[in-house]
Amino acid sequence: MGNVTIPVGQAVQQSAEAEADILKGVFAAHRLLAVNLVSSPGSGKTTLIEALIGALAGRKRIAVVEGDVETDIDAARIRKHGVQVHQIMTRSSCHIPPFMLREALGRLDLGSVDILVIENVGNLVCPAEIPLGEDVRVVALSVTEGDEKPLKYPLIFRTSSLLALTKIDLLPYVRFDVGNVETAARAINPEVGIFRMSSVTGEGIAAFADRLAALHDAKVG
Ligand SMILES: Nc1nc2c(ncn2[C@@H]2O[C@H](COP(=O)(O)OP(=O)(O)OP(=O)(O)O)[C@@H](O)[C@H]2O)c(=O)[nH]1
Ligand SMILES: [Mg+2]
Question: Do the beta carbons of residue 94 and residue 123 sit within 8 Å?
Fold first, then answer.
């Protein structure tokens, strides 16, 4: 029988998908909802997680995995809220690799978690291609980034079931057409759930928290 040649890129993707399946099994076994939060650097991911911890307090037990190239600054911010957190430093990787997430999960008490929020490395490109076995992928886009982003980075908008439009308190000061973004996002993914929110005014946070809580309820029955 002759050798079968698999292009390297395809082989890497297949192994990432196999890893993601393992992670999915871990999340299912612990009856937790895994949320993969993706955005450009500085869109407000960590601030949003901090607001969610407050909004879900007493209802859902939250744990957080932080992914950054360097530093544990974000984990230190989350730790102050008294929830479980683990920081992954990816060094040269522009996304959280599944094997690093698997190691991180081993450091958390998953039996006491309802919703695991994974803050991916700030980047709209690399994390889009790497499934982490998540139940929900959320792409966050802040109003200071430009309203053409769904058109320029379609993969992350196609593969995310929720879109968090962050920093809407800044709308009076920037040129950003929310309607255009929502139309473009829905053209790419008609099923996408869109949330306009501000971690400064608190607008939209409760609705977003309620959606995640409902998704966890639906998963565990
Ligand atoms: N005006 C306004 N500023 C915000 C809001 N959310 C976050 N910020 C600010 O935006 C900056 C970046 O917020 P972070 O939460 O650190 O963003 P991030 O996406 O976690 O950043 P990286 O982890 O570096 O990718 C900080 O100065 C926040 O205070 C918001 O809703 N409104
Ligand atoms: Mg952050």
Answer: yes
Q: Is 42 in the pocket of ligand 1 (CB under 6 A)?
A: yes
Instruction: Tell whether ligand 1 has an atom less than 6 A from the beta carbon of residue 44.
Output: yes
Number of the ligand 1 atom closest to the C-alpha atom of 40: 25
- Which residues make beta-bridge pairs with 115? 33, 62
Most informative mutation of 37, 40, 43, 47 for ligand 1 (most atoms within 8 A of CB)? 47
Domains and their CATH numbers in the chain = 31-216 (3.40.50.300)
Q: From first to last of its 221 residues, what are the pLDDT tens digits of the chain?
A: 457 766 766 666 668 889 999 999 999 999 999 999 999 999 999 999 999 999 999 999 999 999 999 999 999 999 999 999 999 999 989 999 999 999 999 999 999 999 999 999 999 999 999 999 999 999 999 999 999 999 999 999 999 999 999 999 999 999 999 999 999 999 999 999 999 999 999 999 999 999 999 999 999 98
Structure-token match 């966890």, residue found: 216
Backbone angles phi, psi at 170, to 5 degrees: -90, 0
